[in-house]
Amino acid sequence: MGSNSILTFVQLANGSVIDSVNKKLTDIVLEYTPQTTTKYVLFPFLDIHLHAQFGFVESKGPIIIVYIFTLIAIFVLLIACFNFINLSTAKATARGKEIGIKKVAGADQMSMIVQFMLESLLLVALALVISILLVGLSLGLFNTLTGKSFTFANLFQWKFILNFLLVGIIAGFISGIYPAFYLSSFNPVAVLKVKRFQEKATDDLGKCWL
Known about the structure:
Layout: H1 18-32, E1 53-54, E2 57-58, H2 63-90, H3 96-104, H4 109-146, H5 158-184, H6 188-209
Helix pairs in contact: 2-5, 3-6, 4-5
């Protein structure tokens, strides 16, 4: 019995085509052992940690765990966005008078949409700042539990910052787009009439109790 599961590290010249090198490696083996069915391939060094490969089989390795936690994070983020949408639409009646007065004063639907979208993005930006602070405070505990050595400075790498801002913008857009169109579509006359009727009914109810 024998084994050819031996790891060898090589450095390719700039511009080398990996598929071409793989074919040459296999051709050399076939030249001396024509009966072999083994194919020899190179595997990127930077991918070894997340894309483990051993022997004849390439496994997904820890990258599966990364995908699972990424999907969980996206699911939790979407739940938060939908909760924000529900809260915004539920509080629509409380802002009806504000919307009606602004529209009567000359505000158009687009300006109202921009206002509500900016409010949503501002809340998301505040949440991002708080999340960064919480992550920084919990890094020590995280490193203890996982055996890692992350520092607060790792949070300021340009790739992390770019992805962080991108997620914030997407979350702000998803959570704000429906409330913005819904609130800005209110008819100012109808809203103010309803508001006046509610206020009159409240006053009449108070007089009855008195």
